[in-house]
Known about the structure:
The protein has eight helices and seven strands; from the N terminus they run αββαββαβααβαβαα. Strands 1, 2, 3, 4, 5, 6 and 7 form a seven-stranded mixed sheet that branches. The chain has a single domain, classed as 3-Layer(aba) Sandwich (Rossmann fold). The longest helix is centred in the first third of the chain and has 20 residues, at 51-70. A hairpin with a 5-residue loop joins strand 3 and strand 4 (81-91). 38% of the residues lie in helices and 21% in strands.
Amino acid sequence: MTTKQLGEADASAIIEPCILHDVFPTNNITDTQHNQSSTITVVGVFPSSCLPHRDGAVIAAEIINEGNHGKGAKIGYNGDHYLQFRLVVAISGNSQQLSPDVYATTHEDLLESMVVSLKPQYILGSCSFVAKHDDKRIAGKRQTMVLSQVGPDIFYTQDSNDYVFGVHVRSETYGLPAFQALKFSVEDRTKQKI
């Protein structure tokens, strides 16, 4: 099944919990004696219908890893170190078939298994409507930072957790002028070498 088909699947589709993507960087540094490359592992569990969060992360990891002729993003004061990401993304089955309790158990068990076995530096937070199952308990227990991408604001303030990091701008507080002020420019981005 493609990710598009996953997003369009109805409650009758058979979708088992599985790893959907494992973006594993290929380090193209040929000078092994001076290999200044690091890989950060990020894991996340998503409902089958959560395309934007899941697929956006996959695309971002692929773009960063392919930068600088497959070496990754340049980092460090002299720009002589490189950073790549291993992103492992799982889906917890057909979220339209599962009761909230079964979904929560499946999501949490799958995420905990990934954190224990892969020992990631980060957990990628899931969609807003399942984030409560996602990360806070496992992040605290496993001392792994969660990069959240959800709202509402109470997610960050209620039951605070030292391992949860995220930014959320409520949709009712911004408008087109605010985005225009950020001055994102595709042209400027293409001039930068990742």
